[in-house]
Specification:
There is one protein chain. About 15% of the residues have low confidence. The protein has a single domain, classed as endopeptidase fold (from Nostoc punctiforme). About 40% of the residues lie in helices and about 25% in strands. The protein contains 4 helices and 8 strands. The chain has about 160 residues and is of the alpha+beta class. About 25% of the residues are buried. InterPro entries: Murein_DD/LD_carboxypeptidase (IPR052062), NLP_P60_dom (IPR000064), Papain-like_cys_pep_sf (IPR038765). Keywords: Hydrolase, Protease, Signal, Thiol protease. It holds the Pfam family NLPC_P60. Belongs to the peptidase C40 family.
């Protein structure tokens, strides 16, 4: 009788444990799936602006600056960020460049400009440790560049994760 009771208690404990962990895994999986979907939407939105000309202070297809591109793209997925690249750089978690993922932000201090952080890009792909990012430049408008380019390596300050 004691043995049957022990087996019954063991079986019930196993069932409770099994299904309580399954719920946590499902919630975590759902959370990661939602985050992944937001990142995918973000990149699709940002890439849709490729070719838009540069416009200081711009946030539309008529003209867009770097922080305008990032701010507008995040806003369209329901995430509010400050309007300037410098203010954006205070949000999120700082990460090493080697740890960046799609959706992370890269911040730069372009030496010919004054004032510390003055440029931002959005990571769109990481392929064989090469980081690609979309941003708006004064000379070419909204384009995708690589962190393997000497210019961007030299001007890089930090990476942040906001999603």
């Amino acid at each position: 009788m004691k043995r049957q009771w022990f087996l019954w208690v063991f079986l019930m404990a196993f069932i409770v444990f099994r299904y309580s962990n399954q719920g946590s895994a499902t919630k975590e999986s759902s959370k990661n799936s939602t985050k992944s979907t937001k990142v995918e939407q973000l990149i699709t939105i940002a890439n849709d602006y490729k070719g838009v000309p540069y416009g200081a202070g711009g946030t539309t297809r008529k003209g867009m600056d770097c922080s305008g591109l990032v701010n507008t793209s995040f806003k369209k997925i329901g995430v509010q960020l400050p309007r300037s690249s410098s203010a954006m750089s205070t949000k999120g978690t700082t990460i090493d460049l080697e740890e960046v993922k799609v959706g992370d932000l890269l911040f730069f201090d372009i030496s010919r400009l004054e004032g510390g952080i003055n440029h931002v890009g959005l990571v769109t792909a990481v392929v064989n440790n090469e980081v690609f990012f979309i941003h708006s430049t004064t000379s070419q408008g909204v384009i995708v560049s690589s962190m393997n380019e000497t210019y961007w390596k030299k001007e890089f300050v930090k990476a942040k994760r906001v999603l």
